[in-house]
Amino acid sequence: MSRFKNVINFFKSLKFRLILFLILFGIVPGIVLKVGIVKTYEDRSVSIKTSEILSQAKILANQIVSNDYLNYPNSTIINAELDQLSNIYDGRVMVIDNEFHIIKDTYDLDTNKTIISKEVIESYYGQEIKKYDAENRYIELTVPLSRPVEQTGATEVLGVMLVSVSTDSINLNMEYLARNAYVIQLICAVAAVFLAVILSIQLVKPFHKMSKSIDEIKTGYGEDALSVNDYTETIEICKKFNEMLGRMKVLDDSRQEFVSNVSHELKTPLTSMKVLADSLNSMEDAPIELYKEFMGDIGNEIDRETKIINDLLSLVKMDKSAADLNVTNMNINELLEQILKRLNPIAEKQNVELVLESFRPVSADVDEVKITLAFTNLIENAIKYNKPGGWVHVTLNADHQYFYLKVEDSGIGIPEDSLEHIYERFYRVDKSHSREIGGTGLGLAITRNAVLMHRGAIKVFSTEGEGTIFNVRIPLNYIA
Ligand code: ADP
């Protein structure tokens, strides 16, 4: 089975196609040339020989008529001339009178017999007929024996002279030519096959080189980048491959970083719990109040661990393909009102004014759970990273294609160099402050993924110390 596959693979390979192409290119022109040359030689030789014999025959026809040979066929001069023509051209000459009797046959086979053939008859009407029979290898000519009639000026046909000449000599030359051409062709074919195999191996080499380098990169033994500079095409493929490799490395790095961040984040509450538990254990007769206090702290750490795990699970869900969206047509105004209602107690606790402004009723195709999570994160951040006595304005607007959510706050703002990082997982501008207020650094990553899954866009504008604006744009109709 694998042998069969190998054979199929060989036929499909570039190498095989090159070999085939080069062989055809080397052999076909030779065959065409050979056929062409032999054919041209044949046509040309036959035409030269025909016109030569015709002119001789015409001269002789005139003599036959002027010597009145048809009535005196014993004329030694004419007979000698006829024999001479016959000998020179290795052919047969017949003189036929107007009753289709053969009065002279240089082969002496058919003298006094009658001959009726198409060519002879046509010649009686004054035509010269030339015929080449390639199969039987002869040229046949019929020339009318005619003389002008003095009274009328017309010509009178007295008989026909028929000359048939063998073309053996032409055929012999043709065979010789063809044989030589065969030998040359054979040499060319062998050279073409040889060259085709060598050339195709050479031409395909860079691709093998490439495949080998990729294998080496895969196993980690090769260089970090692919470089095969033999052809423009291989340079281009290498460039694309290296770009892809780069992207894969970035992905791999970010995956490793994510795993180490997750471990670190999950370890922190566990370390705190361990410290709290160990210090209680090391104390003899610790007062019940201290137990209660420490147990309260341990409870808080467990809450934090749970929050990190829940956020991670949300993020994993958002990382999946858009096919996991559970889209329904939702009233966005109501959805926002519910979110604000849920967040109001936190805002009040922080002494932050929370306002929702809707310009028009908006309904859109969204995944309720994911979009609620995204909007909650934005508004919660605006409350969390605010100043006492500050405000948060949430604005909803729409056009015929999108709805727009603006979350604006009068909070601490984000430093300019942090703006490009805030969507990264576990990124926090001020780690200790964020931890204090219960942040995990995953909120904006979740929000961004949710918005992108809805084919939307998110933008941030912020001035440190003054406040932050998050603009979100989501299409009203979700197109998968
Ligand atoms: P966290 O759980 O820490 O809030 P996020 O991913 O939601 O994580 O936010 C990442 C960081 O971006 C936050 O730690 C905070 O420093 C900054 N940030 C987010 N929203 C705001 C905002 N409205 N005002 C100021 N800083 C913000």
From TrEMBL:
Keywords: Kinase, Membrane, Phosphoprotein, Transferase, Transmembrane, Transmembrane helix, Two-component regulatory system
All residue ranges annotated as the Histidine kinase domain in the record: 261-478
Annotated GO biological process: cellular response to phosphate starvation
Keyword Transmembrane helix annotated: yes
EC number assigned by the record: 2.7.13.3
Pfam families: HATPase_c, HisKA
Annotated InterPro entries: BphY/WalK/GraS-like, HATPase_C_sf, HATPase_dom, His_kinase_dom, HisK_dim/P_dom, HisK_dim/P_sf, Sig_transdc_His_kin-like_C
Catalysis: reaction(s): ATP + protein L-histidine = ADP + protein N-phospho-L-histidine
Gene3D superfamilies assigned: 1.10.287.130, 6.10.340.10, Histidine kinase-like ATPase, C-terminal domain
Membrane-crossing segments per the record: 182-204
CDD domains: HATPase, HisKA
Keyword hit for Transmembrane: yes
SUPFAM superfamilies the record matches: ATPase domain of HSP90 chaperone/DNA topoisomerase II/histidine kinase, Homodimeric domain of signal transducing histidine kinase
GO cellular component terms listed in the entry, alphabetical order: plasma membrane
Entries under PROSITE patterns matching the protein: HIS_KIN
Compartments in which it is found: Membrane
Gene Ontology MF term list: phosphoprotein phosphatase activity; phosphorelay sensor kinase activity
Domain of life (superkingdom): Bacteria
Protein name according to UniProt: histidine kinase
Species per Swiss-Prot/TrEMBL record: Roseburia inulinivorans DSM 16841
